[in-house]
Design goal:
It contains 5 helices and 8 strands; from the N terminus they run E-H-H-E-E-H-E-E-H-H-E-E-E. The chain has 226 residues and is an alpha+beta fold. The longest helix is centred in the C-terminal third of the chain and has 22 residues.
């Protein structure tokens, strides 16, 4: 088990200006526009603009109508302090979003394999499939085959995150999906399949962390079920 230093910076708009989860990329665009040279904030190479092939240590989300910037590690938490000091309102697609509250929480959170199993649910659609896996999912003959494929994808997401968070998984990750529903989502103009529902695993995840494709843009945000 590993302890991650985690920061969660919440932006709570006034009630009439609550955000939609699909607006997380707009939140990211606004904040990164204020800090042009900070590669950590946009997970792109400054010179080329290409996305870096790593698990994002800064993730932008909209949860229950509120903006959230999640940071993992000391450098990311330092960046959240800078954002918190600088941002007094949000400007998104020509709109000024007035904030009723701004809150930065910093805490150590457990991450890694556990002896017991925990239940989680998706707060935003999880983008499980790359081009190859999407073809396999569409070709699957039964629900069991599709569930098995998605379980392996989610385990792969956890393994990938572990690699970039400097954690070696010591044993097998178990996974059980339930109430899994597919839906179409649009990411950067591309239509993809997203999934909602629940999963049970012997791997501890910090609340509001993201997994899967485009987790830096708010997709695949999960929380432990009570």
């Amino acid at each position: 088990m590993k302890t991650l230093l985690l920061g969660r910076l919440f932006f709570e708009p006034e009630p009439q200006q609550k955000l939609d989860y699909s607006e997380a990329p707009l939140l990211r665009s606004y904040i990164t526009s204020l800090f042009h040279g900070e590669e950590l904030l946009h997970n792109q190479e400054t010179e080329t603009g290409k996305s870096q092939a790593r698990y994002p240590l800064i993730q932008y989300k909209v949860i229950h109508g509120n903006g959230l910037v999640l940071g993992i590690g000391e450098d990311a938490v330092d960046a959240l302090h800078e954002i918190s000091r600088s941002v007094r309102e949000l400007r998104m697609q020509g709109k000024v979003i007035r904030l009723s509250r701004r809150c930065l929480d910093i805490i150590g959170e457990r991450f890694g394999l556990a002896e017991q199993k925990y239940d989680y649910h998706w707060l935003t659609p999880w983008l499980a499939l790359n081009q190859e896996n999407s073809a396999r999912y569409q070709a699957a003959a039964t629900d069991e085959e599709r569930e098995d494929l998605l379980s392996r994808c989610l385990i792969g997401n956890m393994m990938s995150a572990s690699k970039y968070l400097d954690y070696t998984v010591p044993d097998k990750i178990t996974m059980k999906l339930s109430a899994c529903q597919a839906q179409q989502v649009t990411v950067k103009g591309e239509t993809l399949i997203g999934f909602t529902g629940n999963f049970q695993t012997n791997f501890v995840l910090p609340d509001l962390i993201g997994l899967g494709k485009s987790c830096s843009l708010g997709f695949g945000c999960c929380a432990m079920s009570s």
